[in-house]
């Protein structure tokens, strides 16, 4: 029987088989941020242990950092400043590379790691952040870990890992005009549920997946965790290899042929068996918007919010009722036309240059609606500079968008970017649970183009109609 890509990655990194369900897994790259690492370093210090392989660690300040458009950033909040200071101290002590507050390459961890050439096909990459699944776009096994596991990786460069089941999601056909990878993954999550991939490593296949750019694939894999996936994978093809080689020039002639030969094996065998499979048609995808407080509570923008009473499942019915109470909406009402007060474009899901180009294409020649505050937070310093060089930043600022410094920003409101109680936000982030972007704030997830359309019209708007309907 053939092997899945997931099985190949796990087997190639297994140091020891602990039992039928658990292995000791070798880690190629471990990424840290300021809020999941302090206790781990403290634990090492208490036990008198060094970091085993400092060269295979990387750290970044991204979650708590302010994004105000100033030349030199200072973290004003004392507790947040202490987190950043402690991370810098720990990294200096152990010889770990760090991208600090005002580093020119600073940015969101899941944006800068690929753009700096740190992610290669076949790697195992861990981070104390659930959206580490992003790296599956390169045929790398990435997943989030907890603080105690961070300490274990620092001390041993390994992880005690419970094996996942395997799931294949095939998407064939062509995505319709006006739809994106964000709409595709939101559509999938809405159909299989927020727990639909729980316990599985998901591998994406199909013509529609092959057609996606690398940035779009990162969006897809990033949000797979919102369906409960423990990992998300796409077999590396010529697009992935070209991206890696262009971002990692150190893979020179000496390694080039060996790398290509190794990467060519990173795909599921023809006879590989998956524990679960789904098949979707890309032609069925429309621009999606969440209406509730879970990523699976989403519908096409031209649809209506489900009526909870129509759901035969009591648990789902109760969840929908609570979500609608929180969001101030009601079953049966159209999604399109819901007024918004805020727009947030950013996060590790949608803050790459391709995303910002899409926003600028919608915004060009328009002004944001009166009473709407719209923020664009690029995913990294490199993305920010490229957007400025391409004229994207100028288009956005002329339209009334705030052009910010890179960071996680309002994605999770661990900084001074957050919603006020009752504010409704069109957001390109990945999660919309209660209070995610600020206490009592209301989040509607959507693509960057859809968020730009909402900023211009002041309401949730079908981006496919914007050209015909906007005066």
Keywords:
five-stranded parallel sheet; Aconitase, domain 3; 16 helices; 471 residues; 17% strand; Aconitase, Domain 2; alpha/beta; iron; 4Fe-4S
Task: Provide an overview of this structure.
- With 471 residues, this protein is an alpha/beta fold.
- Helix content is 33%, strand content 17%.
- The protein is built from 16 helices and 19 strands.
- The chain has a 5-stranded parallel beta sheet, covered by helices on one side. Strands 17-16-15-18-19 form a 5-stranded parallel beta sheet. A 4-stranded parallel beta sheet has the order 11-10-9-12.
- The longest helix is centred in the N-terminal third of the chain and has 17 residues, at 78-94.
Coarse shape? globular
Average predicted local confidence, pLDDT: 96
Question: What would CATH call the class of the largest domain?
Answer: Alpha Beta
CATH architecture of the largest domain: 2-Layer Sandwich
Instruction: Identify the strand order in the major beta sheet.
Output: 5-4-3-6-7
Helix/strand-derived category reads: alpha/beta
Count of DSSP E strands?
Answer: 19
